[in-house]
């Protein structure tokens, strides 16, 4: 059991290093589409956790807790990813100048010409 756990942890650590190496080589212009694809993958992970949570017969409390934590973190990752992607896409929108209102001079306070209140 511990050999399998150690192998899985080693795969997790190595995949983290490989992921970092791959992502660091991506040009800045491709980060937004890459994040959108990653959000879709995390959505699949959340669905997989839900399926596993529903299909396991008589799961132990530890297994339920691990699946629940994975589900919560996956959901937070999906939501946060879409928020960040939306903000990044908002940076590329052109800002239109606000047209001046008619009668803008009328809304300015009148000059007092030396009068005090």
Features of the shown structure:
117 residues; 68% helix; mainly alpha; cell inner membrane; 0% strand; NADP binding
Task: Describe the overall structure.
The mean pLDDT is 80. The longest helix has 31 residues, at 61-91. By secondary structure, the chain is mainly alpha-helical. It has a domain at 42-91. The protein has helices spanning 2-24, 31-55, 61-91. The N and C termini lie far apart (87 Å). It is found in: Cell inner membrane. The transhydrogenation between NADH and NADP is coupled to respiration and ATP hydrolysis and functions as a proton pump across the membrane. Its EC number is 7.1.1.1.
Provide a short characterization of the protein structure.
The protein has helices at residues 2-24, 31-55, 61-91.
Fraction in helix:
55-70%
Assembly context of the chains: single chain
Order of helices and strands: HHH
Q: What is the number of strand segments?
A: 0
State which percent range the strand residues make up.
under 5%
Profile the largest sheet. Answer: none
Distance between the termini: 87 Å
Mean pLDDT rating: 80
Number of helices: 3
Residue stretches low in confidence (pLDDT < 50, at least 5 long) are none
Shape: elongated
Radius of gyration based on Cα positions: 27 Å
| Structure classification | mainly alpha
Domain NAD(P) transhydrogenase alpha subunit C-terminal: 9-93
Membrane topology: Multi-pass membrane protein
Subcellular location: Cell inner membrane
Protein name: proton-translocating NAD(P)(+) transhydrogenase
């Amino acid at each position: 059991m511990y050999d399998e756990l150690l192998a899985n942890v080693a795969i997790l650590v190595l995949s983290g290093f490989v992921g970092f190496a791959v992502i660091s080589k991506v040009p800045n212009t491709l980060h937004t589409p890459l994040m959108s694809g990653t959000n879709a993958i995390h959505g699949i992970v959340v669905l997989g956790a839900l399926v596993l949570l529903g299909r396991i017969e008589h799961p132990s409390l530890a297994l339920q807790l691990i699946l629940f934590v994975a589900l919560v973190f996956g959901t937070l990752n999906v939501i946060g990813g879409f928020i960040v992607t939306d903000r990044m896409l908002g940076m590329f929108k052109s800002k239109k100048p606000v047209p001046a209102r008619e009668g803008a001079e009328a809304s300015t306070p009148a000059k007092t010409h030396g009068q005090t209140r």
